Amino acid sequence: MHAGQRSGCYGIHYEPYQPIDRVALYSSGCESIPQRFLIAMTSSSPLLLLSLILAWSAPAFLLARAGAGDQGLKHIHLYMHETFAGPNATAIVTVPSPLGANATFGVVGVLDDELRDGPDPKSSSLVGRYQGIFAGAGLVSPPGMQSAINFVFTAGEHSGSTLAMLGPVLSFTGAIERSVVGGTGAFRMARGYCVMMAAGNPTPDSIVYEVDLFVKMDYA
Fold it and tell me: Where, by residue number, does the polypeptide cross the bilayer (predicted)?
């Protein structure tokens, strides 16, 4: 454990808030997913690729109380685990595009991914769900994939609380940033943003995302 970290419930590490270098984050984001994987997914099933892309909206958890001078901002760090193929898929397309199999405009899908305290599904603990819907709403570049996501906490200190996130996916590679627009329970009136990056290399039917969420609690 690094200096300044504290071990929380379910083994989640509570870290002091540190601002993200967005320039470095965005410039290095596409390196974590091989181009051949994206090409293969697009060729075999562009709709499954859309499910993957939408997962880049989401962020990691449990709360570290922010340090002095950050105006109450909380940093939440976690991992989202998504399965996009097979009988246990957690991200599926429910309505294909009326424009054809290779089109994304008009696609609608749903997500019910796992939120865990680590990248390894075998050694990490389940702390919540990453649930939401997405739709292809752009005819031209940027992609214009719109999403509405809820972080539903089912274990730990914030069990029963939720965070709501809205926003578009403006790139198919690199980091995705979206707005936190509210919450319930411990997160009432929450506002902030989320940055998500792929963690390691995907398998043929699954992928893991490292999530960083920065939240300001207005009611405190």
Answer: 47-64
